[in-house]
């Protein structure tokens, strides 16, 4: 329905009806709900004094303002709410313990270690793990599954603590961003010889925002020049006042390297938990919790580490984790032992899921396989819709200039994959800050850590996005798929290069350049040590051919771990050869570079001049 104009703009008008929009919706999403032309909503916003493009994601307030102006009520639905509604439709309540007070039993605190880079987070996690393996389980092979549990004695009582084994606040924020609360207590590591640094403050702010109590580990007290008192003084400015100064934060001086006072730190965690938190859960219900880390294992399929938050998870249970589901085929604890069940605050690795869930996805056990499948499918569909809702037409960086001029796109869609969430976020925020004039918007449809996958290419196809791989490569068949479908995948290892190129493309100034052409990939099957040549990779050529004297990079678990290598030596049996083709085995020598492992992939390439399109 069209109503009279406001300030010269024809205004779609409602009758006070309520429309529901997902958080972060754009004017286009809004327009779709009321069957209006997005351009008219842009005009309305302009009249209200706000410049907003049709496809940009806007704040809740903007949506409310716009709705008010057009006589609609708007109800903003957060992704968490949407999910809760989905679960409710199956009569499932997530996040609350069932039963009464008396059904609740004390559970161990779950701890994340945060702090500035190089202050000793990783070392501390190792030290804790080494000195406090739970009795009776010692001797098992320590396995990194993303979390582990230790035991310590406090006031003659055995107490357990669960540690999330990914140091740093990326994991913490990623999970929190998805509405998942994984952490009860944060250990803030501050090196006594370095003091409070930018990421110390960042970590502290994350913990505060999440309302998580902090225990401060003042590390590296063995180092000369260590000044634990100064650290206490500095942190006072951020509201963390040590108990000995009359505050309520426990500070413990430690040396992760020498294993000093680790027990006191654990005790401080337990005491802080007892003093400020009521950590209890009902072990006698269907298990619920969150996923911490997952990967695809060649032999075992999807392997997900989950943290049970309430209830007890058992082998044979049917579970949904994010958009993955399945029946628990086996469970392994952090020592690699098979276990039959896992109670509250216990991390376990679960086998038997259909696919790999994301970190921070919630999990729940349901009665029937069918329910699990339906929930998983609905979630997957929702994610797909959210991504596809942003679609425009397919572009490449080279022809961007032309389509821009022709007025065919107003938006450059990007998918960013990288080796670490930090670099991905840094790249994303730099790109979003690019000032490229008014005609065009940059929009990041999807970002993530890990190799460029077929599903990334899928999304790029559907939404005409350009894929950026930062220190990662395409995995499996993704490269061929991109090639076949004409999806532009760009690889970078330096942030500013990525930014420069995108900026140049947006300004229509992309120079013809040398293009990297992949020649072949070789999978390392064995590593031979030679006293003369260093490490030799015994390989099977997986694709293309590998030639001597070409460039190579080393990929481990989908991530680029070394660039600019040279295929210096190439052998088949005892003979030096110049090339080896797909399907054959041989030996590769990378010159001085020796950091190779079984299952690494050596990808070789050549630079060729790229014709201007
Ligand atoms: P992260 O970046 O916070 O995970 O820091 P790491 O755990 O990787 O530690 C950074 C460096 O500091 C490594 O070389 C550690 O061996 C060293 N380090 C960590 N803790 C201590 C400590 O207590 N004393 C000394 N002397 N060195 C430490």
UniProtKB/TrEMBL annotation:
Keywords: Cytoplasm, GTP-binding, Initiation factor, Nucleotide-binding, Protein biosynthesis
A single GO molecular function term of this UniProt record: GTP binding
Pfam families: EF-G_D2, GTP_EFTU, IF-2, IF2_N
Gene Ontology cellular component terms for the protein in this record: cytosol
Presence of keyword Nucleotide-binding: yes
Localization in the cell: Cytoplasm
Keyword hit for Nucleotide-binding: yes
Domain of life: Bacteria
Cited PANTHER family: TR-TYPE G DOMAIN-CONTAINING PROTEIN, TRANSLATION INITIATION FACTOR IF-2-RELATED
NCBIfam families: IF-2 (TIGR00487), small_GTP (TIGR00231)
Family: Belongs to the TRAFAC class translation factor GTPase superfamily. Classic translation factor GTPase family. IF-2 subfamily.
Record's protein name: Translation initiation factor IF-2
Organism: Streptomyces monashensis
Taxonomic lineage from the root: Bacteria, Bacillati, Actinomycetota, Actinomycetes, Kitasatosporales
């Amino acid at each position: 329905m069209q109503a009279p104009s406001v300030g010269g703009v024809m205004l779609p008008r409602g009758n006070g009806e309520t429309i529901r929009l997902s958080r972060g919706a754009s004017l286009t999403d809004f327009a779709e709900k009321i069957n209006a032309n997005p351009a008219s909503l842009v005009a309305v916003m302009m009249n209200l004094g706000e410049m907003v493009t049709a496809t940009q994601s806007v704040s809740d307030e903007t949506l409310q303002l716009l709705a008010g102006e057009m006589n609609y009520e708007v109800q903003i639905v957060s992704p968490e709410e949407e999910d809760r509604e989905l679960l409710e439709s199956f009569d499932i309540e997530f996040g609350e313990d069932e039963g009464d007070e008396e059904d609740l039993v004390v559970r161990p605190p779950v701890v994340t270690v945060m702090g500035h880079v190089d202050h000793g987070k990783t070392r501390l996690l190792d030290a804790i793990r080494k000195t406090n393996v739970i009795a009776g389980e010692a001797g098992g092979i320590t396995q990194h599954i993303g979390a582990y549990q230790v035991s310590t004695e406090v006031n003659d009582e055995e107490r357990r603590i669960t540690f999330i084994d990914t140091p740093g606040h990326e994991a913490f924020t990623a999970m929190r961003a998805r509405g998942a609360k994984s952490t009860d207590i944060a250990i803030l590591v501050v090196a006594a010889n370095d003091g409070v640094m930018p990421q110390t403050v960042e970590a502290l702010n994350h913990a505060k925002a999440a309302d998580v109590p902090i225990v401060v580990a003042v590390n590296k007290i063995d180092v000369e020049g260590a000044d634990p008192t100064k650290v206490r003084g500095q942190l006072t400015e951020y509201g963390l006042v040590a108990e000995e100064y009359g505050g309520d934060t426990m500070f413990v001086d430690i040396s992760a390297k020498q294993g000093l006072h680790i027990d006191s730190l654990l005790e401080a965690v337990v005491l802080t938990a007892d003093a400020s938190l009521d950590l209890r859960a009902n072990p006698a219900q269907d298990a619920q919790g969150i996923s911490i880390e997952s990967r695809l294992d060649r032999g075992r399929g999807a392997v997900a580490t989950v943290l049970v938050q309430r209830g007890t998870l058992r082998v044979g249970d049917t579970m949904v984790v994010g958009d993955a589901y399945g029946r628990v085929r086996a469970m392994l604890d952090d020592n690699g032992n098979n276990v039959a069940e896992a109670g509250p605050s216990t991390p376990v690795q679960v086998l038997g899921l259909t696919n790999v869930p994301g970190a921070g996805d919630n999990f729940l056990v349901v009665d029937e396989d069918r329910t699990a499948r339906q929930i998983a499918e609905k979630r997957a569909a929702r994610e797909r819709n959210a991504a596809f809702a942003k679609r425009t037409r397919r572009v490449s960086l080279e022809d961007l200039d032309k389509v821009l001029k022709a007025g065919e796109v107003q938006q450059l869609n990007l998918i960013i994959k990288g080796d670490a969430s930090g670099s991905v976020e840094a790249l994303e925020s730099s790109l979003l800050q690019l000032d490229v004039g008014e005609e065009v918007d940059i929009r990041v449809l999807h970002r993530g850590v890990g190799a460029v996958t077929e599903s990334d290419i899928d999304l790029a196809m559907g939404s005409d996005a350009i894929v950026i791989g930062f220190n990662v490569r395409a995995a499996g068949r993704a490269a061929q798929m991109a090639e076949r479908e004409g999806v532009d995948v760009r690889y970078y290892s330096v942030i500013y290069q990525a930014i420069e190129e995108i900026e140049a493309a947006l300004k229509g100034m992309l120079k013809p350049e040398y293009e990297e052409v992949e020649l072949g990939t070789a999978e390392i099957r064995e590593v031979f040590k030679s006293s003369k040549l260093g490490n030799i990779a015994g390989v099977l050529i997986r694709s293309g051919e590998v030639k001597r004297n070409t460039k190579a990079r080393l990929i481990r678990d989908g991530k680029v771990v070394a660039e600019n290598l040279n295929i210096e030596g190439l052998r088949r049996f005892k003979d030096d050869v110049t090339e080896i083709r797909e399907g054959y085995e041989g030996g590769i020598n990378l010159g001085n570079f020796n950091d190779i492992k079984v299952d690494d992939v050596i990808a070789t390439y050549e630079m060729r001049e790229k014709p201007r399109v």
